[in-house]
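Side project, low priority. Logging it here so it doesn't get lost.
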Amino acid sequence: MGYRFSLQTANTIANLAFGKVISCYRDIYSDERCYWEFKDFLDTFDENFFVGYDERLRNSKYDDYFDEWNHHYFRHRKEFYREVIYDIKREFKNSKRGELSHNYDVVADDFPKNRRLIGLLGVLSELMKNCRIKSLLLPKPYMESKSNDSNDDFMMSKETLTRLLKLHPYDSCLILQPKERPNSNGLTIFDSFPHFDVALRQLDSWSAVMFWNNRDDYVFAPVQSLNELEEMYEIMHYERNDSFGELKRFVNSKRKQQASHYYLHLSDLHFGAKTTPVNGRRLNTLVDKQIESFSKDNVNTTLNFVITGDVVDSPKKKNKVDYQNFYDFINQKSHGSIDPIFVLGNHDINNHGLSLMNTNKNLIDSIGHYPIIQIDNDIKVIFLLFNSNVGGNLAEGEIGTDQLAEMGNNLDKIKNISDYKLVAVLHHHLTAIPDPDWHTKRWFEKLMPTNFLEKSLHLRDADTFKEWLIRRGVKLVLHGHKHIPYIGNDDGINIVACGSSTGQVVNIDPKKTYISYNLLKFNSDTVTCTLYAEDLLGSGAVDVQTSTLKY
């Protein structure tokens, strides 16, 4: 069977297809947007649900019989699903919980009382779960910074779904097809699908299909043509004993697996702060788990780290030792052509991060002088490392023209520089970063005017630095400082901020934190960037945002 879905209803489809009935019910009443999305799912179900005819039974002396059988099966399945959807719509409409005047949080917590609606959702979910194989078509995402020249419109075509259903006319495979191309900045809409992080890490290989079975096996399979797509679904039909193994052999035979190149972007570790002993150990575990997850995708993987400042809370000897232990940990985990990269933050230089005539600069002696160039020949990228702490008051930053001149001298000495991409790395932010809903200010910050607080954190010569980046053709900047993860674009420059990787930020919920890190996958022309965060210690990091950036 097949189902064409709008991107707005992706979460509903994923919950039902993989047996998460209670999650589906809770989502319906979690907020007004989800309510209307579920209603749209019900209203459009009939036009989006497809059952195929088995044309393989034709061309025999029993043609008339099989035509009648096919028609009976098709009509029976459609009618059965229609009856289930009709009952759900009726219960949904009659339920007092369907009234928009209700408080959504209260309704969601009160879900056991509407057992009939939950039971009907369970029936629909069970019908989808009965499919031996489940699959999701993944067209290339639309990139705002790049003209949409994709040639995979067949991935969203109704005719494609019809052709695939000739191979799976009954319940052997559930084929889920998005109606439109997703935006590269909004791919978290697919997060409810299990193991979707595997597909996200290989976003550069889309168009693709994710296949799952009821034993929790999965395969990510890139697609180059409609014929290749049909071959994959033929394998899923005919290879009953080892369909996933055969599909992997098919995919490997079509293209040689290229090495994958990852950087873990960390920032604002603040070793020496009150919570870093516990949160630091948690970060180590999250790093290990993240490395394990993408190492399964491709054995030919390089990994490195980039830390954008504030490795310690104050430049004291004990804090420096704690950071050195962490550096030894990531250095052991990394395997690439260069050592882990890091730049200075204001806390690495000044006590409590404030520039008040403080000359304690212990870490500078062990790091060297800026600016610094590091060349990663594995990915053909030159990292431009700046010290954004040469001037400014309080937590302000400044780079200064001396660094810009010296960096220009270093770049002009590289003869084959056109073969490389340039990535700037600093601590302070190039542009203002919006506050997310979960973030709240510390008590003393609430006493300060907003404009003063922002000014005390900003990069004083941001406009000059941005002009230098544009003239040098730098399209990607990595930074930290504000402890809030962010992906944005300013005058054609992609900006990626990392939050605090040890959760040194105040959550609006006092029982929560926000440990965050970024995963960057470097390709020839794009960087796939995923912001990960864990807000409740030990609950696991989740994908906050994934974007494909041209650099």
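Brief comment: The mean pLDDT is 83.
Revisit when time allows.
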